[in-house]
Amino acid sequence: MEIFFTILIMTLVVSLSGVFTRVLPFQLPLPLMQIAIGALLAWPTFGLHVEFDPELFLVLFIPPLLFADGWKTPTREFLEHGREIFGLALALVLVTVVGIGFLIYWLVPGIPLIPAFALAAVLSPTDAVALSGIVGEGRIPKKIMGILQGEAGRNDAAGRESLIFAV
Q1: 31 Cβ contact partners less than 8 Å away, ≥ 6 residues apart
Q2: Alpha carbon separation from 18 to 10, 15, 23, 27, 165 (Å, rounded)
Q3: d(CA 7, CA 137)
Q4: Which of 41, 71, 95, 116 is the most buried (most CB within 10 A)?
Q5: What is the DSSP track for 31-47?
Q6: Tens of pLDDT along 10-62?
Q7: Where are the transmembrane segments (predicted)?
Q8: Residue pair 48/6 in contact by the 8 Å Cβ criterion
Q9: Residue 129's pLDDT is what?
Q10: Domain boundaries defined on the chain
Q11: Reported pTM
């Protein structure tokens, strides 16, 4: 019964976050509002805690999201800008994992190098939903937005593979 109430509360909060975003006197992207409300709900005094197996999360959620992102990618734009998309996705994830991994290793002396790379692999991919939510529609030229969204979808896979390689 507890899982039912947790799902009910989370569904209600996600639904109300859209209303809160529209009612605010200033403009705030919906993903940021949802992150803020989720952080409030996860505060230790509220006691809303959801446990899940990370392996189950990787199997249940990541592949369908990557598939949906690939399905929504326009084929013509992807073929036209494929080199830029894959160049950004692979090179930036690799550079970020190595750079941030060494930075974490240098800043936190207790962390060995391999776990530092694993943490960097988790942090390196950008999020296409956050990109479009924060930037908004029409602020960036369509060509650049298409390349960035294509790159954001492909670097999730590159980040996942970097994490698996580091672990």
Answers
A1: 127, 129, 130, 133, 134
A2: 13, 6, 9, 12, 38
A3: 31
A4: 116
A5: HHHHHHHHHHHTSTTT-
A6: 888 888 888 888 888 888 878 788 888 888 877 776 666 667 777 777 777 77
A7: 6-25, 85-108, 114-135
A8: yes
A9: 61
A10: 1-51, 53-167
A11: 0.58
